Amino acid sequence: MILLPRPRPDFSLLPLPAIYFGPGRFSMLAELAGTFGKNILVVTGSHALQRSGRLAELTDGLQSAGMRSAYLVVDREPSPELVDGAVSQYRRLAIDVVLAVGGGSVLDAGKAISAMLRYDLPVERFIEGQEGFMPHDGRKVPFIAVPTTSGTGSEVTNNAVISRVGRSGFKRSLRHAAFVPDIALIDPELMVTVLPELTATSGMDACTQLLEAFTSPFATPYTDALSCSGLEHFSRSFLSACTDRSADSDVRGDIAYAALMSGIALANAGLGIVHGFASSVGGLIDIPHGTLCATLLAEATSENIARLRSIDSGHPALLKYAKAGAILSGVDSEEVHAGCERLVDTLEAWQEQLSFPQLRSYGLFAGDLDGIVTATRSKSNAVQLDEAAMKRILSKRW
After folding, report:
1. Which of 8, 230, 343, 393 is the most exposed place for a label (fewest CB within 10 A)?
2. Would the pLDDT of 1 be above 80?
3. Residue 17 burial (C-beta neighbours within 10 Å; 0-12, 13-18, 19+)
4. Is the pLDDT confidence value at 52 over 90?
5. In Å, how far are 88, 211, 272 from 299, measured between CA atoms?
6. CB proximity list for 47: less than 8 A, separation 6 or greater
7. Which segments of 58-148 are extended strands (E)?
């Protein structure tokens, strides 16, 4: 059995929402929302909730509770224009609570809108790294997050990712500790109809977050425990959720739990090079975040391990990679090298079995790689990578 390095005993924690997890929890939404007031803005995706009949169920519940509802549909990752337009449209309604029910983009949109309804300034002024950046003071309308996919962990994080795609585009965060949702409700029954491709790519986002938070230089005993627990649940049910047991709420519950743990872990430990690329690549081409994570994780992990070995064969992060390899492959060992190899082999096998696409299929050109590498930062990666290493990761998946 691989023993983890002795963890650092000092750490601090971000706040958590009130968390309601389990099958059937969706029925609690109207009652929970009603504790904040009568005027509610419901943010949803464009199809899944309507097709499943759950939107009608929610609407009926809100009406029965005497709530006045407005609805916003989000069909892509939120842009500054989407957030500013929604704030302008709904501020006059004196919204008491924002409820977002959907995938990561829907949750990020709802989170950003709740953060901006009390401001007259455009959201771009508060996005990290943008010109004229101003720190947000944390004022917001109460926010409830209900994920319908298992990936981003946005239901428990303190940031909303906002993007503008193109040659001068960006993908960065609106962030404040107060932006952690007030309530996170996770009902695996909402996820049983998610298509296999989305199940796979969103699941790989959660896996990436767990692995990057686990191996982060800023990991703590708390985040290590969450990461290992999340990886164990993920390993048990990931392929089943993508294939023959997709309609099993217990299987979906495992992946939803893994995503939840990944969100808490990343908020407290940070993320690595794959998410560094998510910012630089995601601002340039229109590629779903989970797809980017899925296609880069195996190569990035392999590159990190190679770099760590060249520095110190006993590096603590190598022990963690080996532990993750034992969890995800189901084969334990006392030999660190073998555990690291099993991890990479497992990730590569999933990449092939689930046919994760190459970056070029989303319009990335070979000539873009140098600029992406120059723009990519990742202070929480397991090891510092030079530009040659980062370009190898991208080139192998281009």
Report:
1. 8
2. no
3. middle
4. no
5. 43, 13, 13
6. none
7. 68-73, 97-102, 143-147
149 closest CA partner among 95, 104, 92, 117: 104
pLDDT band at 12 (very low <50, low <70, confident <90, very high): confident
- Which is nearest to 76 in space by CA: 296, 294, 372, 282? 282
Q: Which residues of 337-367 are buried (b: 16+ CB within 10 A; e: fewer)?
A: ebbbbbbbebbeebbeebebeebeebebeee
pLDDT tens-digit series, residues 314-353: 899 999 999 999 999 999 877 999 999 999 999 999 999 9
Structural tokens at position 184 = 């996170």
Whole-Å CA distances, 234 to 18, 60, 72, 209, 326: 23, 34, 32, 12, 13
Structure token pair of residue 398: 């281009």
| Element (DSSP H or E) covering residue 204 | helix 196-215
Decide: 231 and 328 in contact? Cβ < 8 Å. Answer: yes
Residue 127 identity = I
Alpha-helix runs per DSSP H in 270-288? 273-282
Q: What percent of the chain has pLDDT over 90?
A: 87
Structural domains of the chain in order of their starting residue, each with its CATH number: 25-186 (3.40.50.1970), 196-396 (1.20.1090.10)
